[in-house]
Amino acid sequence: MFIAIAMVLVVAGSILFHVLSPWRATPIASNWGFIDDTMALTFLVTGAGFVAVILFMAYCLYRFRHVPGRRAAYEPENQKLEAWLGIVTTIAVIVLLAPGLLVWGQFITVPKDAMVIEAVGVQWSWSFRLPGADNQLGSSDVRYIDTTNSMGLSPADPKGQDDLLIASSELHLPIGKPVKVLLRSIDVLHDFYVPEIRAKMDLVPGVVTYFWFTPTKIGEYEILCAAYCGTGHPQMRGKMVIESEADFETWRTAQQTFEQSRKSDASRDKRASAQ
């Protein structure tokens, strides 16, 4: 009897905690409200299942408690009950999976007019690359990485000469324009995550992954690494600035290209050797 009461109290406490809890998702700043809706549906279905199972167990503990003189009836099978359980379980699984599959289909289908950029993760900082005037990113390879080429861009690829390099961990993007983010790791597993964007994706060494989103609110948002990547993991942070198209163009024109960076490094090395 006491166990049944405790189980009912657990259900009531769980519901009250969820309703009254001050912890909520951050305000969304992208097109991925579908992800929030899917998670809410998941909580609803699994929460209803949790409440139903626990209350049913509490009912059974009370209804079939030991009473002197009462004898239990042996019933090894109940086809009607099994059929209902099968139907309800199938419907619950479909309700859980179908929306997720639809959202995933949208998540991996990038709009044709999306701006392509690259985010590079390395212990323990973020770097970014944007296309230049040709609107194309040049090729890259870890074999090209050295002290003057931290992103490993190919010096022989003409498409990469005008690529804009941002090593300050601060990424600017225009509001309302779809963005495809190519993700590349130099060393270990990382995860690009901006809570207000909702979308996130792993950076896997040797593989170029991606995700896309459309910024919908002007502001500054923190870029986090959501995969433990070593002792400096908590400090692997960046900043995403969503701004107007005009402000974005002003910022972009002030960035250094790969070609300019190489000439600057060559000039600095020449001065150093002369000294």
Largest sheet: 6 strands, mixed
Could you state the order of secondary-structure elements as H and E?
A: HHHEEEEEEEEEEHEH
| The CATH architecture of the largest domain | Sandwich
N-to-C span: 88 Å
Round the mean pLDDT to the nearest integer and report it.
Answer: 89
Q: How many runs of DSSP E, i.e. beta strands?
A: 11
CATH fold description of the largest domain: Immunoglobulin-like
The CATH fourth-level homologous superfamily of the largest domain: Cupredoxins -  blue copper proteins
Please tell me how large the radius of gyration is. 27 Å
CATH uppermost class of the largest domain: Mainly Beta
Strand content: 15-25%
Total domain count: 2
| Broad shape | elongated
The chain-level structural class is alpha+beta
Provide a count of the helices. Answer: 5
Taking strands numbered 1, 2, ... along the chain, how are they ordered across the largest sheet? 8-5-1-2-3-11
| Residues in helices, as a percent range | 25-40%
Low-confidence stretches: none
Describe this protein's structure.
A hairpin with a 2-residue loop joins strand 1 and strand 2. Helix 1 packs antiparallel against helix 2 and helix 2 packs antiparallel against helix 3. The longest helix is centred in the first third of the chain and has 31 residues. By secondary structure, the protein is α+β, with helices and mostly antiparallel strands.
Keywords for this structure?
275 residues; alpha+beta; Immunoglobulin-like; 6-stranded mixed sheet; 5-stranded mixed sheet; 38% helix; elongated
